Amino acid sequence: MAKQFFAAKDVNAARVNEFFKKRNLNGENIQSVQIYIDNELKLRFSPAPYDCSQRKEIYSLSKSFSSAAIGILCDRKLLSVEDRIIDLFPDKLPEQVSEHLAAMKVKHLLTMTTGHEACIMKDMYRSTDAAKAFLAQPVPRQPGTFFMYNTGASCMLAEITERITGRKLFDFAYENIFEPLEFDNPYWTTCAQGVNEGGIGLHISNDDLAKFGLMLYNHGVYNGKRILSEEWCRAAGSAQVDNSYNGDGGSGNWTSGYGYQFWMTKRDGYRGDGLAGQLCMVMPKNKAVVAINARTVDMEPEIIDVVDLVEHLLDPVDQTEFIIPDYEPIPVNTLPEFCKNSKFRLNKNGSGFTELHIKTQQDKLILDLFDGYQKQTIQASLGSWCESEYYAAGRVPKILSIMDPYKTERIHLAACAGEESGDLKIIFRHLSDPQTEELHLSVNQDQLTVTFSCIQDMLAEDCVKWTGTLIK
């Protein structure tokens, strides 16, 4: 049974087993799940080495929290969705303000209808002034007439929060969202100039996601505390714009409308979602709230499977037992000879590491990473999972297409090791983001090769493979 597991007595085990098995096919995996029906916890599980309380990068689900921050500002009459962007940033405007830029309002940022024809996050992230970079981009379409998923628009919500309050988005959100919802030590990464990545970068737990969903389900109230107005929750979770031309394979989950940084789910309600399977779903017809952390390639079947599960979660109970196994480590076996005590000088790599020292210590493999000013240690157990954390640039969870892959980030992971065809194989199951990496280390005539295998879009080319030479 999973490391963490709870199911209410009226939950149908066969339906849960079917969902877990189906979602774990083809290398995909479910990491944490919580489902509430009518405010009552019905299902909560997390197979080892995962945990419902682990803080994870939730990618674009961060957008929904930026929306909540803007909602609080609007509730307090400090901002309006009808405010023009050029009026909020008169000091950052280009020399020539186009008619379309002049027409852009806060509501267009919230609904992804800024008039841009592509996501402009990459231009913003690598600029020393993200707001100025945003305003400098061409706006080919009339704002409000064309839906284009644009993380840059979401990041402008962080800029607006800072402009209105004089505080960082995280600081403002902590006081007004995270603390009232009793989040456990969240953090939010920043762009080059220190503004929080409003469209991505928030690290919170599955427990936190569930609380956020419950607050939305209860029209802005959590544990008797008013976080957001009922009016804002209704607007944010309703289809504000038509995105029927967006394309989704026919399910309707990406074409049924878009609210204030929330997608409409065709069969029931709305959701915040993030890359690789992060979901916070509010389903009024089923009186349900769902929080899921996962690693999936295609979120479309995941969403369909979640809705199916919720609709049948309370089917008549039979005698079926719950089968939610933990994720198995590499079976205990021997290790290559070079694992006993070897030191390698690394060639230039995107993460900036200069040396790798490998040794075994009882039932663990020890990897010491040097970068010229400090040593970091990663442990991988033999036959079990062992947690470590390190800081590195050019590693997951950065998204190459829009973010700077060389920014250093904290990576919390569970690792196991073993021998495979004469090479060392290490599995890194990330606990601070949804990803899983496989490392293959081989030594041939004193030459080391380290190959990483994961989502290729997550890694810069010079970070996929490290090479080095044995230090004798």
Q: Could you say which structural class the secondary elements and strand pairing correspond to? A: alpha+beta
What is the count of DSSP helices, taking H or I runs of 4+ residues? 12
Helix content: 10-25%
From the N-terminal CA to the C-terminal CA, the straight-line distance is 47 Å
Q: Which shape, going by the Cα principal axes?
A: globular
Estimate the strand proportion: 25-35%
The overall pLDDT average reads 93
Cα-atom Rg, whole angstroms?
A: 23 Å
**What's the number of extended β-strand segments?**
22
Give start-end ranges of low-pLDDT stretches: none
User: In what order do the strands lie side by side in the largest sheet?
Assistant: 16-15-14-13-22-21-20-19-18-17
Largest sheet: 10 strands, antiparallel
Protein architecture, described:
By secondary structure, the chain is of the alpha+beta class. Helices cover 23% and strands 27% of the residues. It contains 12 helices and 22 strands. The protein has a 10-stranded antiparallel sheet with strand order 16-15-14-13-22-21-20-19-18-17, with no helix packed on it. The longest helix has 15 residues. The radius of gyration is 23 Å and the shape is globular. The relative contact order is 0.13. The mean pLDDT is 93.
